[in-house]
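Step 1: inspect the first sequence and its tokens.
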Amino acid sequence: MHGDFADLGCLVRHVMNPAIVGVVIGYEGSLVLVRLASMQVIKLHEYELTAAGDDGEGEPALVDEDDNVIDFTKARDLRTAKTRGAA
């Protein structure tokens, strides 16, 4: 794993709990130091991690459509807005 994909700065995901995603910031033997979004650093074994980069899985990004674009520079009456989640 050291040379395959988990170099410093690589995005990794926990195999058993995919909600744990972080960035590799170092190594301590077979332990990988991973910084989570909460800025907490955890130590995990190499075999517990997989690459979390652009693997082609997951939902595609939202397509820019006229009804999904909100221009925050203009005043808008949120009670009559057609865009969902405008508030």
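Step 2: inspect the second sequence and its tokens, then contrast the two.
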Amino acid sequence: MLDISSRQQLQALRLNPLNQLASLKLKQAGVAEDRAVLPIFCLMEWGLAGGRFCSTRRLPQELLRLRLMADQQAAVSYLLDNLPGGLPQLHRQLLRMSPKGAAEALLEVLDMRLRADPRNPYPLS
């Protein structure tokens, strides 16, 4: 159960343009959103459930870790900070994609982040 400050943080993050876009992609796919989870993570989980994208066993584990972090701003920052091309480019790219393509693109961002993280002994297939 989320405390009040966590719920407020979650609601504020839901207004972020990337989460709004992820919410739209979920609606286009006919997927019900989990209101306790940021849309970006819901879309990525839906993409994993399709089974086509999974370069390593670590990817689902790390996605779950991000989704469950108490500080969701830190989770989003981990995923998106120092993004090659920047966030506006990713946003434009995702707008043109199908829901499945957008989910896979976000999963590729996480995969790239995990490969670049020196604290992560990656890849562990």
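Step 3: confirm your contrast with the notes below.
Residues 13-114 form one domain. The two ends are 33 Å apart (CA to CA).
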